[in-house]
Amino acid sequence: MVLEVREVRKVFDGFLAVDGVNVTVAGGDICAIIGPNGAGKTTLFNCITGHLVPDGGVIRFKGHDITGWPAHEICRQGVARSFQRINIFPRLTVFENVQAAVLSHRRRGRDLFTPVERLYREETLALLEQVGLAGEAEAVGGTLSYGYQKQLELGIALASRPDLLLLDEPTAGMSGQETRMTIALIERIARERRLTLLFTEHDMDVVFSIAQRITVMHQGRIIAEGSPDEVRIDSEVRRVYLGKAK
Ligand code: ADP
Ligand code: MG
């Protein structure tokens, strides 16, 4: 297992946002976590990536206990993420955004006499190519369309060469067309890089089209887990979630 989450809990002022959650993700799998707003999905992601310290339970990545480690250490082990809200440097160019991410993950062997714009140029351009932004390298991050900003975030996340990528609502706020493009992009990158992917998503069409495993959260707990076909027919899921969603 690439990721093992065992009995993880997170409490905010006595409120159990994540209440004894178990999730396992095998290498190379594409797994979705779904559930209504407030189910605890983002909180669980924050516990996995070290942006929050869980109040209980254990998180293992590639067999190592990473529970409570700082986010940069977990990232260095090979876990990357994107956020539900856009998280880029809006005043830097697309190239500079990705280059900064590459630089921060490869400090070794840096030659002080190389102008900074040449550092990791090839790697940065390759990442831009991969996320479909090669033509936007000189554009200023904050001026990009929403869909492009999300692609840029993906490029930034990939700069750390992760084994496990967590995407928190990668298509939130996108048009239907942007959603389809983004999902195709994510699927292709996951396959090419043999990434393990864990994502949350509100669009059920997206979830059922690309996820191999689906975990359903409701009020901090897992209420169902299985293949898309198993989850689709689960009566509890239909009752608390799918029946109310689209
Ligand atoms: P989801 O991502 O599934 O929509 P969240 O993990 O964002 O759910 O939130 C789960 C619950 O925890 C919500 O009720 C939310 O209000 C609460 N919550 C999340 N973060 C905090 C926080 N930092 N402080 C207090 N309550 C929080
Ligand atoms: Mg969320």
Task: Write up this protein.
By secondary structure, this protein is of the alpha/beta class. The strands form two sheets. Strands 6-7-8-3-9-10 form a six-stranded mixed sheet, sandwiched between helices. It has a four-stranded antiparallel sheet with strand order 2-1-4-5, with helices on one face. The protein contains nine helices and ten strands. Strand 4 (56-61) and strand 5 (64-65) form a beta hairpin. The protein folds into two domains: 1-78 and 164-187 and 195-246, Rossmann fold (3-Layer(aba) Sandwich), CATH 3.40.50; 84-161, no CATH class. It binds adenosine-5'-diphosphate and magnesium ion. Adenosine-5'-diphosphate is lined by residues 12, 17, 35, 37-43. The site of magnesium ion has 4 residues, from helix 1.
What is this structure's SSE topology?
Layout lengths: L2 E10 L2 E11 L4 E5 L6 H9 L6 E6 L2 E2 L5 H7 L1 E4 L11 H12 L15 H10 L15 H13 L5 E5 L7 H17 L3 E5 L3 H7 L2 E6 L2 E6 L1 H5 L2 H8 L4
Parallel strand pairs: 3-8, 3-9, 6-7, 7-8
Antiparallel strand pairs: 1-2, 1-4, 4-5, 9-10
Helix pairs in contact: 3-4, 3-5
Bound molecules: adenosine-5'-diphosphate and magnesium ion.
In total, the number of strands is 10
**Widest beta sheet: strand line-up:** 6-7-8-3-9-10
Shape: globular
Residue share in helix: 25-40%
Give me the Rg, rounded.
Answer: 18 Å
Small molecules (ligands, ions, cofactors) in the structure? adenosine-5'-diphosphate, magnesium ion
Order of helices and strands: EEEHEEHEHHHEHEHEEHH
Distance, first to last CA: 33 Å
What is the number of independent domains? Answer: 2
In terms of per-residue confidence, which ranges show pLDDT below 50 for 5 or more consecutive residues? Answer: none
The proportion of residues in beta strands is 15-25%
Q: Count of DSSP helices?
A: 9
CATH architecture type of the largest domain: 3-Layer(aba) Sandwich
CATH superfamily of the largest domain: P-loop containing nucleotide triphosphate hydrolases
Question: What is the CATH top level name of the largest domain?
Answer: Alpha Beta
What is the average per-residue confidence, as pLDDT, rounded to a whole number?
92
Secondary-structure-derived class: alpha/beta
